[in-house]
Amino acid sequence: MRFKRLKLSGFKSFVDPTELRIEPGLTGVVGPNGCGKSNLLEALRWVMGEGSAKSLRGGGMEDVIFAGTAQRPARDFAEVQLLAETADNDDGEIEVVRRIERGAGSAYRLNGRDVRAKDVALLFADAATGAHSPALVSQGRISAVIAARPTERRAMLEEAAGIAGLHVRRKDAEQK
Ligand code: ATP
Ligand code: MG
Asked: What are phi and psi of 21, to 5 degrees?
């Protein structure tokens, strides 16, 4: 799977609709302090199903919604759309949209159809990408790898090896 485009609206500091093309190869995000680099990476993790507000530097999930500034009022929703190239379907592309509204929680769409958070997590877990993928290197992540407990480090390696999706499936199967 290869990410092609990320669209954000009302997500953290990205209040106005913003579109980013993601070209093949390694992508780096550079810019002055506070310009939104980490927010971008968080948007990518969020659309892939990140369920922890803390790992998005928020107290609650609604903290991802643009909170307003002295000049601009707050928004009541945030939406992130990810377009990816995949060999999984005939179109060769998938489009995932996550939207959160104040007081209404998150909703996901996959190629225009309503899906569950779990469906989205599984989709990306199998592709060795995912909200916690080591392919997304955020600030402090390198030192986190070094300081990790062995079990945590194993989880990182499994994710990198593309076998973490199997655990999601096994848990899923055990619940049935
Ligand atoms: P650094 O180089 O310091 O790591 P950065 O480019 O990673 O900076 P971010 O942390 O992505 O910057 O962006 C921080 C900015 O995003 C701050 O100005 C903060 O006020 C703003 N921000 C975060 N959450 C929201 C929100 N919900 N609504 C509005 N603005 C927000
Ligand atoms: Mg940052």
From this structure: -90, 135
Lowest mean pLDDT across 25-34, 43-52, 129-138, 143-152: 129-138
**Surrounding residues of ion ligand 2, Cβ less than 5 A:** 37-38, 139
Centroid of ligand 2 to alpha carbon of 44 (angstroms): 14
Q: Total structural domains in the chain?
A: 1
Q: Which of 38, 44, 65, 72 to mutate to test the pocket of ligand 1 (most atoms within 8 A of CB)?
A: 38
Q: What pTM was computed for the model?
A: 0.80
- DSSP class of residue 162 equals T
CB atoms near residue 144 (< 10 Å)? 13
Q: What is the CATH number of the domain that holds 39?
A: 3.40.50.300
Domain that holds residue 17: 2-175
Residues annotated within the binding site for ATP are 32-39
